[in-house]
Design goal:
Layout: H1 3-10, H2 19-46, H3 52-68, H4 79-85
Helix pairs in contact: 2-3, 3-4
């Protein structure tokens, strides 16, 4: 699947019952593009690369920080709680020296 196909799939209209998933998917996609762009620039302009586990941890942290900034509606689950309870966040325990990162499994929950 190419970038445009993923963007089109994310922007498809969805039932209101999965509005949380849609919001989290959009933010995750935007954050992933940003993190990949930053890594690309670091490799091109400074000839340095970051281990995959660090990039994934950075993306996870970015998502948590951003979702924490949204206030929860009284009648629904907060976006952060939804993200943390979903399988969108990855399992990063003890990968390439990262210890103490919360263990979470990864599977394509949105597919």
């Amino acid at each position: 699947m190419d970038l445009h196909s993923v963007a089109a799939w994310i922007n498809q209209p969805r039932a209101s019952s999965i509005a949380l998933a849609s919001s989290v998917m959009k933010l995750y996609f935007q954050s992933a593009v940003y993190v990949i762009w930053k890594e690309r620039n670091a490799r091109v302009f400074t000839a340095t690369s970051t281990p995959e586990a660090v990039i994934i941890s950075s993306l996870d942290r970015m998502m948590c920080d951003r979702l924490l900034s949204y206030s929860a509606r009284s009648s629904s689950t907060s976006l952060l709680l939804f993200y943390l309870s979903s399988s969108a966040s990855r399992n990063l325990y003890d990968v390439n020296g990262l210890v103490g990162v919360p263990e979470r499994s990864f599977s394509p929950m949105f597919l």
